[in-house]
Every structure is written in structure tokens, then in C-alpha cells.
Amino acid sequence: MKKSVLAVLALLFAVAPLQAQDVPHSIAGLRGEATLGGDTMPPPIARTEDSASRRVRNYPEQPPTIPHEIDGYQVTRNANKCLSCHARARTQESGAPMVSITHFMDRDGQFLAAISPRRYFCNQCHVTQQRIDPAVANGFVDIDSLLAAERDKE
Q1: Distance between terminal CA atoms of the chain?
Q2: Residue 110 is assigned to a ligand binding site
Q3: How far is it, in rounded angstroms, from Cα 84 to Cα 75?
Q4: What's the structural domain count of the chain?
Q5: How does pLDDT run across 109-130, given as a tens digit for each residue?
Q6: Is there a domain that residue 15 lies in?
Q7: How far apart are CA 120 and CA 118, in angstroms?
Q8: Helix (H, G, I), strand (E, B) or coil at 29
Q9: CA dihedral defined by 36, 37, 39, 40, rounded to 10 degrees?
Q10: Do the annotations mark residue 20 as ligand-binding?
Q11: Annotated binding residue 25
């Protein structure tokens, strides 16, 4: 038994270097033609969109995007800068949309007087937007466009 295990291990150690030679030296991916050990200049960070308009959502229950900068916003266990405008009591003076009623529900579907702890950290779902060229082609088509194409075929 020991001899057969040693023979298999010896064979694996002999074959492994042969397989490693088949790997290309550079990988063409999002980094371009740069080698993995090489340094490349990252693209500059794009500016965040800052507009009062709301983006169209692509599917039901999609969280709305944040249409303004949030650099420096503090969201901790004790403070949430987002609620200084989006809290139920502040929307009239701020003009911001109120936090969705679903944010006041616990996991059992019971409504709470304050925002549910599981919905308190806004950036878990809501993100800012930048106008950039996508790194990977995106062929996403929303359901309304698909349904309209089906109606046009008929």
C-alpha cells in the first residue's frame, strides 16, 4: 500500500511541472495586456452624478439609486446622515423622498415605529451612479422592452 501511494505521489510531482508550462504568461482581461505582477495606471475615479431626477428602475423591487454625492456621509450604529433628509419627519423641509414603508417592517412583516435595524445601513442596497464606459459589455433588457418587442411581433 505504501509503495503504491508513493508511486502516485511521485507521478503527480513529475507531471505537475509539465502542466504548469501550458499557462500563458499574461492574461488579457480587465487589466488589458498587463502582466499580473506589473503595475498599471488605474483610471481616474469618475464623478458622482448629482441631479434631482430619479432614475428609471429596471425591475420590480429594485432599490432606487442615490442621485447625489454621499462622500463624508456617516452611517453607523448611532448615526445615519441619510435620515437627516429622508426620515419621515424631515421630508417636507428637505424635499427628499421618504424612506420606503418597507424599511419600517421587521423580518416577520410587522410594522415598526422606526426604521428596521436590517434596513438601517442604506449602502447595502442603494448606490450612487457615475457616468462611465462599462468595463464589460452589458446586454440587459428590461421586462417592459421585452414585452413591447413581443407585442410588436404579433
Answers
A1: 71
A2: no
A3: 11
A4: 1
A5: 999 999 998 899 999 999 998 8
A6: no
A7: 6
A8: strand
A9: -10
A10: no
A11: no
pLDDT of residue 89: 92
85 is in an annotated binding site: yes
One-letter amino acid at 38 equals: G
- Looking at every residue in the chain, the average pLDDT score rounds to 82
Do 127 and 64 touch, CB atoms closer than 8 A? no
101 domain residue, yes or no = yes
Looking up cell 421586462 gives 143
CA–CA–CA angle 84, 85, 87 (5° rounding): 80
Instruction: State how far the Cα of 72 lies from the Cα of 82, in Å rounded to an integer.
Output: 11
Residue 122 annotated as binding? yes
Nearest in space to 142 (alpha carbons), one of 59, 54, 56? 59
| Cα–Cα distances in angstroms (integers) from residue 148 to residues 56, 140, 142, 143, 153, in the given order | 17, 15, 10, 9, 9
Q: Domain of 72: which CATH number?
A: 1.10.1130.10
Q: Which pLDDT belongs to residue 105?
A: 94
